[in-house]
Amino acid sequence: MNVLITGAAGFIGQALAARLVTEQKSSSITLTDVVEPSAPDSLDSRLRCVQADLTSQDDCNALLTRELTHVFLLHGIMSGAAEADLELGIRVNINATRQVLDTLRRVNPRVRVIFTSTTAVYGPPPAPNFPLTEANSPAPLSSYGSQKLIIETLLNDYSRRGLLDGRVVRLPTVLVRPGQPTGAASSFASGIFREPLNGQKSILPVSRDLSIWICSPRTVVENLIHARDIAAEEYGEGSRVVNLPGITVSIQEMLAALEAVGGQEALDLVEDKRDAATEKIVKSWPAMYDTSKAKRLGFVEDGTLEQTLQQYMEDYRDRRW
């Protein structure tokens, strides 16, 4: 396998690259982002780190070669940032991604492309506690969700035509993200664990009654690798879109888990400070899903919130970012 990961400076890209290194299936692994990504194993000769701007056709031509067998598209402007800057979201989330897909279909037809989408493509569910499936029509209430849906549609069509071998995975909110806060509207979900556990204050911008659909980094990475390995025939003639498994938790349940791990001292570092713009975006995301399709295709289910926190403590808490 010759693998390319875009958006590889982000923590999912780094975690995916580290996991690919351990499985010994890839002959080459190229990591690219707008800043040169770090190599998770600097001694592994299969790794190549490249700074590139995917809005540049010249950079795309240099990266997207006939030798590639698998391309993970992880780059993008996050939800809150895409809502704040429409033009930037369009340029990166739509135009740059379309340029990647169009370059690939010209120089490397039928290459396998794994695109990370989002459950933000849905609007509010038709009824409370209604578990959505891939058959429910998307109606995004954010620019980010709209931009991701456009690329879903394009990659599905290119796959139908036999131009590319696409796989679209809709990610839950990934929890806990290490490092600095991101431009995602859901960034607070990681922040209310990460900062208090490091002795720092964190702002909670939404109601404690709100529920969200989450998944651990370990499970997301395993499911990205599984998406790579699924035979095209297993999708049948229908859509290549899959809602990845996750769990539904309320903000109050998350705070209770924080207290269980970090005590009252950590919980006291969370400050309620409602932000209408953030809450509007997050409330538009459904919190319950029927992931029967994912299970049928062999994607793995996530563990409990407590297990997710334990994994964060093991994998990231003591690392410098």
Low-confidence stretches: none
Mean pLDDT: 93
> Quick one: biggest sheet?
7 strands, parallel
Alpha-carbon distance between the two ends: 29 Å
Q: How many β strands by DSSP?
A: 12
Radius of gyration, in Å, reads 19 Å
How many H/I helical runs?
11
Strand content: 15-25%
Oligomer: single chain
Helix content: 40-55%
**Which structural class fits the helix and strand makeup?**
alpha/beta
Structure description:
- It is a single chain.
- By secondary structure, this protein is α/β, with parallel strands linked by helices.
- It contains eleven helices and twelve strands.
- The strands form three sheets. It has a seven-stranded parallel sheet with strand order 3-2-1-4-5-6-10, sandwiched between helices. It has a three-stranded mixed sheet with strand order 7-9-11.
Provide a quick synopsis of the model.
By secondary structure, this protein is of the alpha/beta class. Helices cover 41% and strands 17% of the residues.
How do the strands and helices of this protein lay out in sequence?
Elements: E1 2-6, H1 11-23, E2 28-33, E3 47-51, H2 57-63, E4 70-73, H3 79-84, H4 86-107, E5 112-118, H5 143-160, E6 165-171, E7 173-174, H6 187-197, E8 202-204, E9 211-215, H7 217-229, E10 241-243, E11 247-250, H8 251-267, E12 270-272, H9 276-283, H10 292-296, H11 305-315
Parallel strand pairs: 1-2, 1-4, 2-3, 4-5, 5-6, 6-10, 7-9, 8-12
Antiparallel strand pairs: 9-11
Descriptive keywords:
321 residues; alpha/beta; seven-stranded parallel beta sheet; 12 strands; 41% helix
